[in-house]
Amino acid sequence: MMRVEKMLPSILCLVVSIAAGSAWVGNAASLPAKQIERGFSATHDPSYSEFQPLLADPNGVFSLGFLRFNSTQLELAVLHLPSSVPVWCANPARPALWTGSTSFSFNGTLVLSDPETGIIWSTPTAGGDRLVLLDSSNLQIQKLGDPVDVLWRSFDFPSDTLVQNQTFTSKAALFSTNRRYSMRLGSNYFALYMEVGKDPAPMYWKHTAMEARAQIVPGEGSIYARVEPAGFLGMYQNEKAPVDVLPFDTFSRGISGLRRLTLEPDGNLRAYYWNGSTWVRDFTAITEPCGLPSACGPYELCSTGEPRCKCLDNSTDGCLPADSGDLCGSEGDDFWVLRRKGVDLVNRELLGFQKVGSLAECEDSCERNCSCWGAVFNNATGYCYGMDYPIRMVVEGDEGKVGYFKVRGNAGGGGREGGSAGKSTRAALLVIGVVIFAGAAGFGVYQVRNRMRMIGGVDGSMTEGLAPGPYKDLNSASFRSIELSNSFKK
Ligand SMILES: *[C@@H]1O[C@H](CO)[C@@H](O)[C@H](O)[C@H]1NC(C)=O
Ligand SMILES: *[C@@H]1O[C@H](CO)[C@@H](O)[C@H](O)[C@H]1NC(C)=O
Ligand SMILES: *[C@@H]1O[C@H](CO)[C@@H](O)[C@H](O)[C@H]1NC(C)=O
Ligand SMILES: *[C@@H]1O[C@H](CO)[C@@H](O)[C@H](O)[C@H]1NC(C)=O
Ligand SMILES: *[C@@H]1O[C@H](CO)[C@@H](O)[C@H](O)[C@H]1NC(C)=O
Ligand SMILES: *[C@@H]1O[C@H](CO)[C@@H](O)[C@H](O)[C@H]1NC(C)=O
Ligand SMILES: *[C@@H]1O[C@H](CO)[C@@H](O)[C@H](O)[C@H]1NC(C)=O
Asked: Where is the signal peptide (predicted)?
């Protein structure tokens, strides 16, 4: 059973490659253009199974076109053709459907539209003369002249990936394809964040510039980052010398294959190089089994033992449901409290903390603050760490650390402490109860599925020492192949 599950991705992958191959061969008559001039338009042709090319780079390695993703959706993407991995996506707010008649047009502005919904996505620039895809995978809207003026470039709007030589600035962010995680640059660091609708988003990993070869000079401009062909992620304030060098495994080994850095759907940041037939992984930001926000679910405790994830409330039939937002609404006091000794937070060092006199003081400060979801008190240091996001990333800690966790809703059972019913009326409570029950039932199913997926991956990840999460032993390339293959099943 498990073995079949493990083989399935590669089998599907093979099927997809064959299918994709024949799709391209089948449409060989309409080779994609090398440049697109003002006035061009094309409509999506659903007879392509996975990708409809529109524009090619000079070497035929990258192509801009309509990409099918998540089975039913259509995205304007730049694809690395040998691997079918998208290196850029337009990422409209409302994704178009693969079965729809989305059209692509260039009239100085690049526009994706649909007869029913109108404009789905467009570039903010006007007055472009041509659209070109460079051999670096950078898509550019250019205004002809001497010199050629670049009005818009896809390199300024990355999606989940940076390719080598692509400059990443503090104006840009990487988002995982599921939009749950992001990567941004700060004043002297870059970090990974959980996108839980909070501003600022909670951080779960941070890399600070070492400033070994050059110092960051305040007021001399923001820093930027770039994946270098020599095999490292460099942070710079200017071109003279990097302020940080984050080396990949193949640093300075003369690898000439294309490199990319991708923020993956499990929240990990990984680098790869293309060796001519596959993407070889040579950097993983988070290697501790409990270090990823996706390692365990909400209200779960991650441990290095087996099973990796347990419910914080010791329940064996599904943990407490996921939550979002904060507790600041009109039912702000509508929560109950779960306490647990011997817990810690993976990202403790990245959270705000205050020194308090006692556990009671720590709990009290969280209790009175509706944007606080929980707190961990360390009685050895007197530090109180507050979580301003729904409970996640809890790990085992020593007995001196005590966790205080809010759970939305009325006390779920007789023996639970804390919590007040709030000002809600009986009727409202009944409605909330029904909703919570339905949610919990749904979540139970999700949990069981999630558990099964996790169990399916445990052995692989232990032997290879890879990061955890539902996608843990799939590299990004194969993950994307699954996304593609899912659509193929249809
Ligand atoms: C280009 O097309 C878009 C969408 O149809 C339209 O809003 C825009 O005004 C057009 N621009 C020019 C210069 O024709
Ligand atoms: C990256 O930049 C270097 C130096 O500017 C250049 O030699 C190389 O061709 C570039 N690589 C790509 C893929 O653009
Ligand atoms: C994929 O499709 C499902 C169902 O249509 C949707 O719920 C989910 O949000 C989609 N995922 C992404 C990453 O768009
Ligand atoms: C690329 O890497 C894969 C997996 O490590 C290996 O099987 C393959 O032989 C390599 N290809 C080349 C051209 O080096
Ligand atoms: C759960 O079990 C642990 C260890 O067995 C215990 O220390 C803890 O108090 C229990 N928590 C709850 C909420 O029952
Ligand atoms: C932590 O709390 C326990 C129990 O209240 C106490 O026995 C212990 O001395 C405390 N540890 C420190 C370092 O204060
Ligand atoms: C409320 O709690 C959050 C998270 O712990 C913290 O960031 C914020 O500063 C707190 N607000 C106040 C007013 O204490």
From this structure: 1-28
